[in-house]
């Protein structure tokens, strides 16, 4: 028998409503029931919403065995969008193909298997359930994963993120935050079909949904304390926010956890919290004036951060963002537990992956981490629960029994049969020749030592170590100036090159200002199609002043010419080139090419978001033996890789290659801002021990 009604496997009987508790047990007197009915149990908070239930829970708690503790763990599922997408046949079942399992059901099954053991009464999903709302296969993956919780009687809340709605606009100004989005969305939205109010209402914690169907409220109980979870979907309307106020007002004694997809952001350092307009909008419209809201949770922004704010009642509100979709393998199954420890007055936070420990041992790489130890992913929030909740309730948790904290047990159990792969030994280059030589190298562009610090005028050479395909700086166009390009000694720590090419002052404003290097019209590489596969490597660093408005889709490397000129091309953007090696508006690395084996459509590998002012080694490996093209960032393969298609198509005109810019409709465009180190193109797939990051002796 479980020690808490909300962590049992028993589903409520037909017709049971959350506002009614179980029948009173013998031994509970009439005065206790009357107090419960008014929202105050004889032992304190615990039944402010559920009359009669707190006394029942307390009675059972006092008569239970010694494993009972005064802490519980709240499970949180950050953006699962890539888990839903890359488990589908549309995406080649990328997870199943590599690991024989998928991360989304691994997360929910972990909760099912361990809810009683770790005292997990409730789970909160932070939205972006799927990546592409129009794709039923992705909804089917999410549906199956969440049904694991439902079938086991483990309640949860869910909300729609921007990827879960058919039309999701982001607003930058605080004045335009409320767009009446609930009313504007149609009733045919996939989210409302797959996760309707009727589905939520089957859970014993369910309280109410907003009439639009987009927002929901639950109440769960643990250790004799009841909490409300308010889950607001993407861009809640003014009416939905008024509903949230009403929910809080109608249950004035419940501490409230506000879940929302977008609220707190993360600064460019990847650690510090960063407020955004919509988060401030919710703070002003809902959070600051409701003292019951003591904690907020959101996803959307990539990483983790904590911000403590003070509300109108001089009390702290803990805002937390967590989202791992841009980590290794689209998040690698990382989720969170929040351990509420009423005895020690703290909330311990841990980020971990139940999927990593299930992967085949021979598939594990140094990027697989079952437990994150950085301060923004594992931390403690000090909170005096009684004092924090004193304005609206009489807080009194259950008395302590013998027991140990939850999170250390979770970690110990995860590592019982799992060992993390060691970090590879990193050996810096001994000299400029300390890299693996590959006979099939087609071009290897890098600056010369004696060029560092000199002016890079139009016509200045960028050497090719094969001598077959050197580049030259193109004639200055538009507002470009000689000083916009610099040869510098700055480089990636594992690059043996003397330095890098730095592109400055790039902008899209006005006529645009950018510079580039290009091969000669008769260079042999211009006609190469790489039928035996290829490896393209580049070291890059994005300028710290990069801005999406000025520098989105800035190109590292391209092959000139419209892809629409290719015979048989029928895909989108025919004005684009056959190769797009670029940084997107979200600072993702994009490798998009038209394969030589099939010129009808382009194919794209995508990375997660990368940081500014940070050196990265990028490698794209096309291997015809398994029909794959995989993008690696600092040695980590990205999950959004291509299956099918080989080689790189070349136009009939055999157009030149260019470094530092892209191409659009017969003209160079989209200049790079930042530094590009050595770039190598090889006409076969290479394993990591042959990359430029390896050393010649070891190779």
Outline the structure in words:
There is one protein chain. The protein is elongated and about 80 Å long. Residues 1-67 and 170-176 have low confidence and may be disordered. By secondary structure, the chain is α+β, with helices and mostly antiparallel strands. It contains 14 helices and 34 strands. Strand 32 and strand 33 form a beta hairpin.
What are the key terms here?
single chain; 699 residues; alpha+beta; 17-stranded antiparallel sheet; seven-stranded mixed sheet; 14 helices; 34 strands; 25% strand; disordered N terminus
Give the helix proportion (percent range).
10-25%
The assigned structural class equals: alpha+beta
Judging from the principal axes of the Cα atoms, what is the shape? elongated
How many helices does DSSP assign?
A: 14
Give the total of beta strands.
Answer: 34
Average pLDDT over all residues: 87
How far apart lie the N and C ends? 60 Å
What characterizes the major β-sheet?
17 strands, antiparallel
What portion of the residues fall into strands of 2 or more residues?
25-35%
The radius of gyration is 28 Å
Uncertain stretches of 5 or more adjacent residues: 1-67, 170-176
InterPro entries: Calcineurin-like_PHP, ConA-like_dom_sf, Metallo-depent_PP-like, STPP_CPPED1, TAT_signal
Organism: Bradyrhizobium ontarionense
Protein name: Metallophosphoesterase
């Amino acid at each position: 028998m479980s020690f808490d009604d909300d962590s049992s496997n028993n589903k409520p009987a037909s017709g049971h409503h959350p506002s009614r508790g179980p029948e009173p047990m013998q031994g509970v007197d009439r005065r206790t029931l009357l107090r419960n009915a008014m929202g105050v149990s004889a032992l304190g908070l615990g039944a402010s919403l559920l009359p009669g239930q707190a006394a029942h829970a307390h009675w059972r708690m006092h008569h239970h065995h010694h494993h009972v503790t005064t802490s519980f763990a709240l499970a949180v599922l950050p953006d699962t969008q890539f888990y839903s997408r890359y488990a589908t046949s549309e995406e080649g079942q990328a997870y199943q193909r590599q690991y024989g399992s998928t991360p989304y059901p691994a997360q929910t099954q972990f909760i099912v298997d361990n809810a009683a053991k770790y005292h997990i009464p409730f789970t909160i999903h932070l939205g972006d359930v799927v990546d592409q709302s129009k794709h039923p296969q992705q909804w089917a993956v999410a549906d199956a994963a969440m049904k694991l919780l439902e079938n086991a009687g483990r309640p949860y809340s869910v909300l729609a993120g921007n990827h879960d709605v058919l039309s999701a606009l982001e607003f930058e100004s605080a004045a335009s935050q409320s767009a009446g989005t609930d009313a504007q969305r149609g009733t045919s939205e996939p989210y409302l079909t797959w996760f309707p109010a009727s589905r939520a209402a089957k859970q014993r914690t369910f309280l109410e949904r907003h009439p639009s169907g987009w927002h929901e409220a639950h109440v769960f109980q643990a250790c004799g304390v009841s909490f409300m979870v308010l889950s607001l979907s993407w861009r809640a309307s003014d009416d939905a926010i008024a509903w949230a106020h009403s929910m809080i007002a109608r249950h004035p004694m419940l501490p409230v956890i506000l879940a929302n997809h977008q609220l707190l952001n993360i600064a460019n350092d990847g650690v510090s919290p960063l407020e955004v307009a919509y988060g401030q909008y919710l703070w002003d419209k809902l959070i600051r004036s409701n003292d019951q809201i003591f904690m907020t949770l959101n996803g959307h922004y990539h990483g983790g951060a904590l911000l403590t704010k003070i509300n109108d009642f001089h009390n702290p509100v803990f805002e937390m963002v967590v989202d791992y979709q841009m980590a290794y393998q689209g998040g690698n199954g990382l989720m969170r537990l929040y351990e509420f420890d009423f005895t020690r007055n703290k909330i311990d936070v841990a980020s971990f992956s139940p999927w990593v420990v299930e992967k085949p041992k021979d598939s594990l790489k140094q990027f697989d981490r079952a437990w994150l130890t950085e301060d923004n992913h594992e931390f403690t929030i000090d909170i005096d629960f009684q004092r924090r909740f004193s304005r609206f309730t009489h807080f009194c948790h259950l008395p302590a029994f013998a027991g140990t904290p939850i999170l250390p047990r979770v970690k110990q159990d995860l590592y019982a049969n799992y060992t993390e792969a060691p970090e590879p030994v990193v050996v810096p280059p001994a000299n400029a020749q300390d890299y693996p030589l590959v006979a099939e190298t087609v071009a290897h562009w890098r600056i010369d030592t004696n060029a560092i610090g000199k002016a890079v005028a139009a016509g200045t050479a960028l050497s090719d170590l094969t001598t077959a395909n050197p580049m030259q700086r193109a004639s200055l166009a538009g507002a470009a100036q000689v000083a916009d390009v610099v040869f510098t000694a700055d480089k990636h720590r594992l690059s043996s090159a003397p330095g890098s090419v730095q592109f400055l002052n790039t902008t899209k404003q006005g006529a645009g200002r950018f510079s580039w290097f290009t091969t000669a019209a008769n260079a042999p590489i211009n006609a190469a199609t790489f039928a035996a596969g290829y490896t393209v490597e580049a070291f890059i660093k994005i300028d710290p002043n990069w801005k999406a408005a000025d520098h989105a889709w800035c190109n590292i490397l391209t092959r000139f010419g419209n892809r629409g000129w290719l015979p048989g091309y029928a895909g989108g953007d025919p004005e684009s080139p056959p190769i797009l090696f670029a940084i997107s508006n979200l600072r993702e690395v994009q490798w998009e090419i038209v394969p030589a084996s099939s010129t009808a459509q382009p194919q794209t590998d995508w990375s997660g978001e990368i940081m500014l002012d940070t050196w990265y080694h990028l490698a794209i490996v096309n291997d015809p033996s398994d029909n794959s093209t995989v993008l690696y960032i600092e040695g980590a393969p990205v999950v959004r890789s291509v299956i099918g298609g080989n080689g790189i198509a070349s136009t009939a005109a055999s157009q030149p290659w260019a470094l530092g810019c892209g191409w659009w409709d017969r003209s160079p465009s989209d200049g790079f801002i930042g530094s590009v180190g050595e770039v190598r193109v090889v006409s076969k797939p290479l394993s990591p021990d042959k990359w430029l990051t390896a050393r010649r002796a070891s190779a």
